[in-house]
Write a structure and sequence with these properties.
- Helix 8 packs parallel to helix 9.
- It contains 10 helices and 10 strands.
- The protein has 2 domains: 131 residues, 3-Layer(aba) Sandwich (Rossmann fold); 126 residues, Rossmann fold, CATH 3.40.50.10090.
- The strands form 2 sheets. Strands 2-1-8-9-10 form a 5-stranded parallel sheet, sandwiched between helices. It has a 5-stranded mixed sheet with strand order 3-7-6-4-5.
- It is elongated, with a radius of gyration of 19 Å.
- By secondary structure, it is an alpha/beta fold.
Length: 273
Amino acid sequence: MARIVLTLPEPRAARMARALAQRGHEALRFAFAALQPLTGLPGAAALMTDLTRFDRVVFVSPTAIEVFADALKGGWPPGLAPAVVGPGSLAALAGRGGELHPGLLVPPGPAYDAEALLALPALAAPLRDRILVVRAEGGNPRIERALAARGARVEVFEAYRRTALQPDPGSIDLLARWLSEREASRVHVLVTTVEAAERLAELAEGRGALGSLRDIDALAIHPRIADRLRALGWKSVTPIEPGLEALLAAIESDRRVMEAPGQRQHRSGSDSD
């Protein structure tokens, strides 16, 4: 059994914690953000009833897929081809019935980010598609700008909002207990954003009960996150792909891959939220 600190936003942390418990692992939800769907707003509802005017929908994260698909009326639109950035999003798409679409686009790997998606031949200029980009409110506009520059007619759907969270005192106390026990080597922390890495470092700087936080193995879903963790003083950083299966492979194996082949190709837009 492993112990895993999850920094994913809620409610994704809760779902992953349940999945890990089913495999016999102990998970601590340590979210620094919560994701709130915005599909109930009047403009969003109107957009969701007029999806036939789009040829493709581009999802920047698993949450974008989940929120969008949960708001669909009558199932996945047959003429709407999805595009996703990585395995975490592909798993979310599979759970919502869109992974079998013949027009599905997903990077072949090992790079899973915005650059890898935009490098696919189907998204090369000149584009004439009508494309809907689904992302967080105030999210990075890189993908829609690149597609528009290539000729696509692009519309953005800000489907969810990120709000900041503070870990509750009970979670901090439990993490401190894990760190103090003799089996602390079995503790891992899954880090899904640079911001989460920085928040963890702030907690470790307190030099109190969480002062040894940098001693546990950090699992980073993007090389940019891994680099930041190392710069912040983490002693052990393991790059992994996004998604539950990659996490299970990392914690259930004695083998640690400190830099997976090709992962240096990532630059931005990882498959995180």
